[in-house]
Amino acid sequence: MTTALHPREDTGLAGRLARSAAERTSGAGLRTSEVAAWLAERRAAHRFAVTRIPFADLEGWSFAPHTGNLRHRSGRFFTVEGLSAQVGEGPEGRWEQPIIRQPEVGILGILAKEFDGVLHFLMQAKMEPGNPNLLQLSPTVQATRSNYTKVHRGAAVKYVDHFTRPGRGRVLADVLQSEHGSWFLHKSNRNMLVETDEEVPADPDFVWLTLGQIGELLHADNLVNMDARTVLACTPVAFAERSAQLSDMMLLSWFTGERSRHETRMTSIALNEVTGWEQDPWSIRRPDGRYFEVVSVGVEAGSREVASWTQPMFEPTGRGVIAFVVQRFDGLPHLLAHARVEGGFLDTVEIGPTVQCVPDNHPLPGGAGRPPFLDLVLEAKPERVLYEAVHSEEGGRFLNAESHCLVVEPETPLGSELPPGYCWLTPGQLAALARHGHYVNVQARTLLSAMTTGAVAW
Amino acid sequence: MTTALHPREDTGLAGRLARSAAERTSGAGLRTSEVAAWLAERRAAHRFAVTRIPFADLEGWSFAPHTGNLRHRSGRFFTVEGLSAQVGEGPEGRWEQPIIRQPEVGILGILAKEFDGVLHFLMQAKMEPGNPNLLQLSPTVQATRSNYTKVHRGAAVKYVDHFTRPGRGRVLADVLQSEHGSWFLHKSNRNMLVETDEEVPADPDFVWLTLGQIGELLHADNLVNMDARTVLACTPVAFAERSAQLSDMMLLSWFTGERSRHETRMTSIALNEVTGWEQDPWSIRRPDGRYFEVVSVGVEAGSREVASWTQPMFEPTGRGVIAFVVQRFDGLPHLLAHARVEGGFLDTVEIGPTVQCVPDNHPLPGGAGRPPFLDLVLEAKPERVLYEAVHSEEGGRFLNAESHCLVVEPETPLGSELPPGYCWLTPGQLAALARHGHYVNVQARTLLSAMTTGAVAW
User: Fold this and answer.
1) ipTM of the predicted structure?
2) Which CATH number is associated with domain A248-263+317-452?
3) Which residues contact A385 (CB under 8 A, 6 or more apart)?
């Protein structure tokens, strides 16, 4: 029996991550300025084509006879079902919608390794049919259980053993995080950062980059994919904050209070029971054109595990806005967090950014029902924008789902009275919460990844 | 706008809690040795009677026409419904059972206050119909939302304002914790410790005790109730452990792996769809006599919010065993934790003790299906038992649900090969996880409360 104990905290890791974050222009692999061209080259090296198809042309997918649920004949992958939501007691908190059920937990894993004493991260040029430019910088491994257990009989997932065989590497982060609660029912993925000392075989679709290089690339639109961003958000970098508006305990108490005060009742229903939506041969959509459509695509790909397939996807009807409002207290930047109810969350609320919405779904600026702080964010002067880029949401399920991502410090500080459900926390507090699941939603994690990689100009 | 920041960690609190834990024989109120007599006196001061009644004698409760679900005509309190569970893929992971659905989040709150520089905790002598001795030491406030919003039109819940009005006191702990996952569907309660500087009016059913006094009282059988124990488990005491078998990150990774590897599908069904159970006028039970029965009681009480009522309860068919096996590595005690699937957990698994079962439900010692480590725990020599007491589970829902609670250090260390789903962690690591919800189940929290209060003889 081994009796060698481990220190509970790896005190050296924060320094090593800081060193990696400081390397922003070059590393052991490509220079930062070369990555976009390399992605374009990888894009050209493969044969990719995504086309919208009618539901009738889906292969292996069909609407179940009694429920109308859209599912694959293998019973795997995912299904499109219905959700009936009731938040609070009144009719204004009641809605129905299609939702994706995908109970299996996927792995989003980034492999890390030191080159010349600097941590690098193995990023993949990966095609996903929903991305506007198809191919983006992705985690080393991005695999559903169906992928890595070979349900669709494709090629093996490269490098997956580093994440599925415990003890092979050193785990730097490993946490189940929720995915989009408005589109997925109870979906979570395993976000992993694993460091290896082994020789890692090279592959033309992969590149080693420092944390700082990835941070620089997060300034580009549609370059670093969502799966990479959520893993990067879980990177245990150090934030030198000894104090905050709320102590860590007060913050946990605020969150517990938010989770307790919302009474939600989310009920799974059949897709054909969903009211307010209509189906035609090409889509399931709302007559008012809001939110999203359920559509289908055919995919031809050379670098994916299988060469061609068809699948349903969700396509939002407008571009989203994801933004944190920043304010300094005693000079220390704080983020305005929002405890959000989303229909697909496992547990009531998670912390989202200050603003998370699709502006087209809401009335005119200043009108009733306009999300709080949206206009403040959209009207910010350029010099008050600390971070800005357009990013895609998960390209394996969501088609052309782009979000305008912002970190904004308004000229005029907000008053001390915040609307219900909002509170100030520091980037370090947000990062500490993201060590655990069920706290920080995927949109807030996209913005957090810009902080853990040093992309936000504080 | 306030700009005064708080330190993120309250560095003085650990010392104050240690001082309170050191006071074990007396405090500002009763001496420890006087508490049992005081409880007996309070018991005599009220008029309590609990009687088993047939379902037909329930007032306001009835079986719904189509589902057979047992519910109250107000739509409040709780319902007894059915659960269909599928864990993994095989028939051995499949079962159905009655389960309690109570979506509202209750408050379990203990009020703290310094007397002569020592923290004391306001404990209540509270009657619950399911407790074998009816009246036990309880949190200051133990209230469902129905209680404190007065759905059953009783008296106001004493001291509840300290917990429902944020900012009135200083929050020492505040976390949503799961309740019994085998009996409750997705139930959680808000566990709160709040310190006040205000004058607190005295009440004959309440007493101020130090953490050490409560720890001493945890050696008595059926004296400190479950609701008090789970809040005490969340007390942020300091454990001086800088190292452990697994670093904190490795432990989180183990837990994430356990949560990921279990594929569970829990489906709510109607009570009259539950197979393997039968109903007669007095109970819903299994023909083989295993697990529990659904029964009804009539209650006469003088000190509860309403003077008399009837309600359904779950009555286990045998006494449970809840035990942690302890082993020292480099002299540092570690607990053998078990990642348990329970049908009512919101998220797959939580950390339970090494042993959690009702031995009567399982074959003879050494036989197949006997829970791992059960016989090791039951056969431990008295000098290897570091903690032992019989405690009741929640007396508001569970009738005569007693558990034999143990912390045992076997003479012969276990081998380094553990069964799947088990791992060693330190008491401090367990306590750190209990700052967050969804990690530590209620049975493990009972044993943890014996550690946070200094009741375990390390």
Assistant:
1) 0.96
2) 3.90.79.40
3) A406, A407, A408
